[in-house]
Amino acid sequence: MMPGGPRNARQMQMMMRRLGMTSEEVEGVTEVIVRTKDREHVFRSPEVTKVSVQGVTTYQVVGEPEIRPRSADPVPGAPAAAAPPAPAGPPEEDIALVMEQGGVSRAEAIEALGRSGGEPAEAILKLLSQKGSGGR
């Protein structure tokens, strides 16, 4: 409850302006989706208000959400997201280091990095231990 009793809409707008606040209804909103890591909160035909306070804008969404697990499928009508780039393999610096320290070819260095989970130090140690034991 506001001090001084009930106020009409005009008085509220004047008070908000004095405080540096503006608000406006966002017209024509058909759906709002809030996505978290594992769920989607879908508001169908919500009331949305844009509120600005001293240069900071926030949106207020009013409605009953449908909460559902987040799907891997794109939203109908939304542009398809670009596929993430395929991993290019181990970094070039790691390959060069393993080649130099392990005294092996590029292909052998890449293979050793793959077997060691991409860890250059582990790959080098395995290569050196194989050379020391005489087997490859």
In brief:
The chain is an alpha+beta fold. It has 4 helices and 6 strands.
What can you tell me about this protein's structure?
The protein has 136 residues and is α+β, with helices and mostly antiparallel strands. Among the domains are: 21-68, Nascent polypeptide-associated complex domain (Ubiquitin Ligase Nedd4, Chain: W), CATH 2.20.70.30; 92-133, Helicase, Ruva Protein, domain 3 (Orthogonal Bundle). Helices cover 33% and strands 26% of the residues. The strands form 2 sheets. A 3-stranded antiparallel β-sheet has the order 1-4-5. A 3-stranded antiparallel β-sheet has the order 2-3-6, with no helix packed on it.
How would the blueprint of this fold be written?
Elements: H1 9-18, E1 21-26, E2 31-35, E3 39-44, E4 47-53, E5 56-62, E6 65-69, H2 92-102, H3 106-115, H4 120-133
Antiparallel strand pairs: 1-4, 2-3, 3-6, 4-5
Helix pairs in contact: 2-3, 2-4, 3-4
- Which consecutive residue ranges, at least 5 long each, have pLDDT under 50? none
Q: CA-to-CA gap between the ends?
A: 81 Å
Largest sheet: 3 strands, antiparallel
Count the helices. How many?
A: 4
Looking at CATH, the homologous superfamily of one domain is: Nascent polypeptide-associated complex domain
Secondary structure: number of strands: 6
- Rounded mean pLDDT is 83
Derived structural class: alpha+beta
User: In sequence order, what are the helices and strands, one letter per element?
Assistant: HEEEEEEHHH
* CATH topology (fold) name of one domain: Ubiquitin Ligase Nedd4, Chain: W
* Percent of residues in beta strands: 25-35%
